[in-house]
Design a protein that fits this description.
Elements lengths: L1 H22 L13 H26 L6 H26 L3 H5 L7 H4 L7
Helix pairs in contact: 2-3
């Protein structure tokens, strides 16, 4: 029963992320600049969690605690997970469709055609 619920929730997550990747971040209704606060706050949250894990490890190391091994492992795993999450945010939230950023699409883009004002 629990596995079925978890599978259903995971399927809903995949559907939501897939819809986000297809349609873009406009589905959030962020048509005003203040609306970007949602994505920015989430990004900063994950960066903060990464810093917290590093701080926990550093404090335990500085105080030379003999019992710190398991807590250090947890803090370092937390840091790695948080950095991976934070690394996804610029990829997903800037355009959600990364192929537009790279110029690898079959549709012409200013970057792929050399017509960008930044390239001149």
């Amino acid at each position: 029963m629990i596995v079925a619920i978890a599978a259903a929730l995971f399927g809903m997550l995949q559907t939501a992320v897939g819809y986000l990747l297809v349609k873009g971040t406009g589905i959030w209704g962020i048509t005003i600049p203040i609306g970007w606060g949602f994505a920015i706050v989430n990004f900063v949250w994950w960066i903060g969690i990464g810093h917290a894990g590093t701080l926990i490890s550093a404090i335990l190391l500085l105080f030379k605690q003999t019992w710190r091994t398991s807590i250090n492992r947890f803090a370092e795993a937390m840091t790695i997970f948080a950095v991976m999450q934070a690394g996804l945010f610029p990829l997903i939230h800037t355009d959600a469709r990364g192929w537009r950023r790279t110029g690898c699409s079959r549709f012409p883009t200013p970057w792929a055609s050399g017509r960008s004002s930044a390239a001149r």
